[in-house]
Task: inverse folding
């Protein structure tokens, strides 16, 4: 005796990866595929750049990402990123490539 089960899979909405030109200042982003690896997964807000066709933007990390970076032991092994000082609540990363950013408005 054989029965056939029907399985329904809920469709997950596809969110296309923004092209580097689509990353706008003032938006919350998550850093991905970036070197050094200690920056992967951190979130922050892109800063204003007068060049509208910029392929790199400054990112002001949020407080939790700054604290995570401060405690990450890998930061001491790279010259690209410095450990945030104890009095710094939000670290500014300069000239981050736009193709290493995803919008993170829906992150919690």
Result:
């Amino acid at each position: 005796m054989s029965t056939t089960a029907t399985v329904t899979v809920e469709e997950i909405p596809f969110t296309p990866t923004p092209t580097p030109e689509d990353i706008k200042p003032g938006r919350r982003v998550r850093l991905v595929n970036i070197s050094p690896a200690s920056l992967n997964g951190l979130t922050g807000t892109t800063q204003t750049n007068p060049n509208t066709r910029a392929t790199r933007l400054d990112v002001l990390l949020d407080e939790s990402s700054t604290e995570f970076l401060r405690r990450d032991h890998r930061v001491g092994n790279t010259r690209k990123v410095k450990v945030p000082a104890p009095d710094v609540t939000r670290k500014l990363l300069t000239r981050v490539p736009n193709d290493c950013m995803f919008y993170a408005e829906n992150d919690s």
The mean pLDDT is 82. Residues 20-103 form a domain with the SH3 type barrels. fold (CATH 2.30.30).
